Amino acid sequence: MSVQVNQVVSRADLKRWVSVPNGLYQGSPYYVPQLFSDQLTYFDRHKNPAFEICDVELFLAVDNGRLVGRVCAIVNGLEAEKLGYRRGRFGWFECVDDQGVADRLLDSVKNWCGDLGCTEMTGPQGFTDLDVEGLLIEGFDALPTISGSYNHPYYRKLLENYGFEKDIDYVEFRCRIPQESQLLERFRRRYAGSEDYRVVTCKSRRELFSHADAFWRVLEACFEPLYGVTPLSRKQTEFYTKKYFGFLDPNFAKLTFSRQGELVGFFIGMPNLSRSFKRANGRLLPFGLPHILREYRKPDTVDFLLAGVKPGEPSGLITAISAVAMYDTVRRRGVRHMETNRELEDNTTVTGIWSKFERTWFRRSRVYRMDLP
To answer: Is it true that the peptide bond before 286 is cis, omega within 30 degrees of 0?
Structure first.
């Protein structure tokens, strides 16, 4: 094997880098392709403002013309300011089942991070915690959400053989939505008389976009202490607003306001589009868009993406009334299942809620860490 690991330097290189998973997961019933055009935009240094605050290098592994792996190396400048030291990250790691190829890719990241003065390396992670995080280690027999990811079971062996050790785990659940929930009905009775807070369901995307600035302020305030959370620049929040808010169905966006009209909490979901994205196979046109629109309008499943409460506000009350509002909406829309986004395994406040429902599957993903010389 004559493997070469090269840096991505041209548009043609980037297209090859983005296309690596297509070959590695060909025929897999559980891999969900991302939209090719979105991926090209996301890793374009001139379009994604993450490149303004992060040092980034993309590495591509090729063996006699065959694409056999890729990885992204990141040092987030705002994270370094927050931590007080430089942490190297690796993300979007894909590789054939060959330890030699994996070692070459990871060596490239380790040497690059070392040259930038990093004292540790963690991953898989992205530019921020809004990107895909963690390596799937349990639950390989289910489709991920489109904001999640899938990888071959042997990836764990490649990383651990290289010397990585567990840093933290994330968990995900798929649950059936019951026709009646004693927990949520208890929430409804307990908090029905509250006049200090109200949950608003936006009537349009335009209304939802009008709350974007307040949403990001609350999100950063409540997520700041969590593992892997990096500060966001103004350009990044604007970029993520355009990228993600357009996918949201306002019916599944619950915003909680105080008596004074201040946004103090949110509970965000969206129709699960995994099956339609799989049918689209990375392309909206000519056949991908109809599948996506069909599943969007009549979802069987809703992905619960984000929930948060502004520090200092009563989190129990706000979580309860927003959960009741979401429950009423999903029942009215005929949704039968819910899937969670990746949640820290020690976040018992949230995972405790899902434990009250009938789970149909469970997934676990891991972020690894190693010290650098």
So the answer is: yes
What's the helix, strand, coil split of the chain in %, to 5?
Answer: 40, 30, 35
Phi and psi angles of residue 252, each rounded to the nearest 5 degrees, phi first: -105, 20
Q: Cα separation of 114 and 139, whole Å?
A: 34
- In whole angstroms, what is the distance from residue 272 CA to residue 343 CA? 17
Kindly report, residue by residue over 297-322, the tens digit of the pLDDT.
788 888 888 888 999 988 888 888 88
Query: Is this model's pTM higher than 0.85 or not?
Result: yes
Q: What mean pLDDT is predicted for residues 42-69?
A: 94
Architecture of domain 175-366: 3-Layer(aba) Sandwich (3.40)
User: Residue 154: what pLDDT?
Assistant: 97
Which of 74, 89, 90, 94 has its CA nearest to residue 33? Answer: 94
| Rounded Cα gap, residues 53 and 351, in angstroms | 33
CATH topology for the 3-171 domain: Aminopeptidase (3.40.630)
Least confident of 67-81, 152-166, 172-186, 207-221: 172-186
